[in-house]
Amino acid sequence: MKWIKIEKEDFPRGLKALAETYQCLGPVKGEKYHDFKVLDENRPPDFDFLNTPLSPKFLVEPQSEILFEYTLDEKKEDAHILKEAQKDLPPRLVVGIRPCDAAAFLLVKRNFDTEKYKDPYWVRAYEALTLFGLACQTPCAACFCTTAGGGPFDEAGLDALMVDAGDHFLVKILTEKGEAACNTAGWENVVEEKAALDAAALLKETAESKIASTVETDNLKQQSTTALYDAPFWEEVSFSCINCGTCTYVCPTCWCFDIQDECYGCSGVRMRNWDSCMYPLFTLHGSGHNPRGTKLHRVRQRFMHKLKYYVDKYDDGIQCVGCGRCVVSCPVNIDIRRVCNLMNALPDPSTVCPV
Amino acid sequence: MFNPYLPYPVRIEEIVTETEDKNLKTFKFAFLKEEDEDKFAYTPGQFAELSVAGKGEIPIGIASSPTEKGFVLFTVNKVGVVTTHLHAMQPGDIMGIRGPLGNWYPWEEMEGKNVVIIGGGFAFTTLRSSIVYMLHPDNRPKFKDIHVIYGARTPGMLLYREELASWEQRDDIHMHITVDATTDPGWKYNVGFVPAITEKKAPPGDEETYAIVCGPPIMIKFTQPVLDNLGYAHDHIIMSLENRMKCGIGMCGRCNVGKEFVCKDGPVFTLAQLNTMPKEY
Amino acid sequence: MIDYTQKIREIAARLLKEGTVDMVIGFRKGTVPMMNEPCFIRKPEEADRLVWDSHCGINLANYLYDRKEKIGVVAKGCDSRNIVTHIVENKIKREQVHVIGVPCTGMADKRRIGALSEKDGEIREVSEKEGRITVKGDSFTKTFEKKEVLQDNCTTCLHRNPVIHDEMIAEPVEEQTGIDPFEDVKRIEALSPEEKRAYFQGLVADCIRCYACRNACPLCYCPTCFVDESRPQWVGKSIDPTDTMTFHFLRAYHCAGRCTDCGACERACPVGIRVRQFTKKLNKDCVELFDWEAGLTLDERPPLDTYRPQDPNDFIK
Description:
The complex is a heterotrimer.
Chain A: E1 2-7, H1 11-18, E2 23-29, E3 34-38, E4 64-71, E5 83-84, E6 92-97, H2 99-112, H3 120-127, E7 129-134, E8 160-164, E9 168-173, H4 176-185, E10 190-191, H5 193-209, H6 225-229, H7 234-238, H8 246-250, E11 257-264, E12 267-274, H9 295-314, H10 325-329, H11 336-345
Parallel strand pairs in A: 2-6, 6-7, 7-8
Antiparallel strand pairs in A: 1-9, 1-10, 2-3, 4-5, 4-12, 8-9, 11-12
Helix pairs in contact in A: 1-4
Chain B: E1 8-17, E2 24-31, H1 34-39, E3 47-52, E4 56-61, E5 72-77, H2 81-87, E6 94-101, H3 107-110, E7 114-120, H4 125-135, E8 146-152, H5 161-168, E9 174-179, E10 190-191, H6 194-201, E11 209-214, H7 217-230, E12 237-240, E13 256-257, E14 260-261, E15 268-270, H8 271-275
Chain C: H1 2-18, E1 23-29, E2 36-41, E3 50-51, E4 71-75, H2 77-88, E5 97-101, H3 110-116, E6 125-129, E7 132-136, E8 141-145, H4 152-155, E9 167-168, H5 183-189, H6 193-204, H7 212-216, H8 241-254, H9 264-268, H10 276-290
């Protein structure tokens, strides 16, 4: 494993070189908050942030994305026939993405890149990414990544991991993509592995020790789906929910979408837009029947999907990276950590005395 | 990269109004490109997304059988934006079909077995596909007794009436057509709800007999105890679910019942499977 | 605020014990600083869950309708006005709710406090005492005068005391006077049409169409919101700026004469859009044209669903 050192003052020069090959993105401070934006000389990355309130999932799954184009003009030979929308997909380098958000792409990949079907829009956008993660040295109060299967220095899904070491970054190069980007940037100051590892390990330990909030997940797999579904706590858990889409829209691992046609005169597009299991419309049948017709159904679906269905389907942990965004953004303070622990601790119904 | 969202362009060849309320029409489509028909190789029980540019898509069970060549059939109930638009379209119009999607009835497992088809209302489309498929000379020897119990509110609400009549004439299939009620003095078949006719006409359940049940929730609710009484094991009761769908390929997230996606892991499930799943359909 | 909490618990326990109500809706302590969560209790012994402090901003009127139970509800001034609106609009019956009135001194704006502490680090703990709010982070402690960090709508609130109640938890607080609630609206009114357009476009530029503003609003109870209608589809579903703008403006108009300026929409917005900039202009118009503030009386219907011969009609020329 190769470690390099990038002096912070050299960073802009490297980014400038990278911009020849890549579209570079990074956290940029806006009026209200940090968000991932295309970088240029006038818009440098600002690494002085906890995490962005909106997840960078939009890099791969934009909130609105055109899939197809068509014409309804009967005079045209190809009227009513859908054509795949042509997209400019340059290689994109993302600097400063948090490990949780990079790991989230791997969880979501299971949905879009399957044996039977591949979602070409998602797969292409994901493959175009090179991810330079920034280790989390000041984890947020609502973060629980260490018990959600990751960690503030987690390398999963990253091409390189940057660790802030004061006046320089220590960078662990993890993949060929990461190596290629470093070469392009001229970041080639290789440091001795042992020393880098030791320095990073110390910072990592400090960061991990700051993560005070946790979830219990060990029991979720063996819990019965129907027992969890019928658990007594859903009324209480869902009571405050207003069924907005905030939790799902800020979540890096929520991927659900809607497909819509829109026309302007004779030219039309088929697009997909983020959708949310919180919305009644999401599952409403044409007949008016709704299998998830109450907010209890919908809140339960969100948590069951993340913490039970996904766990059972892929047998590799929960569909959550513990970034804490939904906890912080929920307008009514519904907290996935609390719900996860309730689900994990649900007593086996066969052992409970029916009073 | 293959794009699973891209529909095959098709032309509407023929539109047949099926029911007296004119809410159900059968559309016969031909593929604009011959090779697309081969790509659209399907098995009875599967569905497809019918795509109308400018309106959207709608998942509909495939009513034709793969043994019928040169066209595909879909029977569409007029309900929402897309289906209403479809009902106003004309032969010659161009649209799209995306699929085939989902799983199918367990034909390999049912080989050499009795098959009882129980259907109600307009949920008879993939059952038509199944009957035509099984009755094809290449396939008929693969199955033992075939029973069909099919009911609608009135004679005029039955789908595929001419075909039903022709199947009645055959001796290699036991037809039990029924209506909830009729004032037609010429009606020569059964009168009564599907569960009642099932009780009277369906063969007893055993290891060698499978029931495929499709219909409105109320029919399914009352047919299930009848099948239980007849001795059908729950892994021998096959059902097809419907949920709101968009992508049809298990990605958009809305049609799940527990961890299964109706569009990709279904729509066909055994009752034994459904018993372990939340009732979100 | 401790005594408020204590009083609410006593009343809730008594109402449940006496069988006056089947459930009490109030707040429980939140899991993150400066957030409490709406909750319900059904048994007197659960009353200890209820709390009250300056982080009970969510409008509980949003939780009352479409329920069968007899409900006790903890209500500050704005909540009570929305309860009135619900009663007038036949969403609930007066006799179905037992209003536990809370005289309110305003709710803290967690965004404002967060912004004022941003340089120091993340807030991990909050407490309040004698009109001051103290926040603590890993390496800092900061104290604010509560009146300096109120939600914007609370700074201009003229009805801090519940307008209806079945019992009060304390003596009424003094109402604010000498305030112009529409100063900001006047500034916008003075802009040119182009400037106004640019102003509102800028306001909603960050909107992610999550509908938190709509869903947090007690007025937005339509079975199917116009943005969700598909036949016909009034509004596109993407984040096209025109569609986003249409949503915000139309929603505001649907609230005209009904909005109590409770601030639920703004508080709920995950990207900090000042949603009240849309509704406040209509509130101002209602005051000027109809001498009307929403939710103050059970005896009068809101001006936009009634006709009176003396209604201003200067717009018909």
